Amino acid sequence: MKKRNKDSQNGKALAVASALGIAAVVVSVFAAYNTAMKRLVPTDTSSESSWVYSNSSSDVPVQNNVTGIPIESSKPSSTTKPASSEPAEEVNKPIVAVDIGNVLPVTGEVSNPFSNGELVKSETLGVWKTHDGCDILCDLGTDVKSMSEGTVKEIKDDPLWGVYVIVEQSNGLEVHYCGLAKELNIKAGQQVNQGEIIGKTGETNQCEVLQQPHLHLGVKRGGDWVDPMSVINAAS
Question: pTM of the predicted model, to two decimals?
Answer without folding.
Answer: 0.59
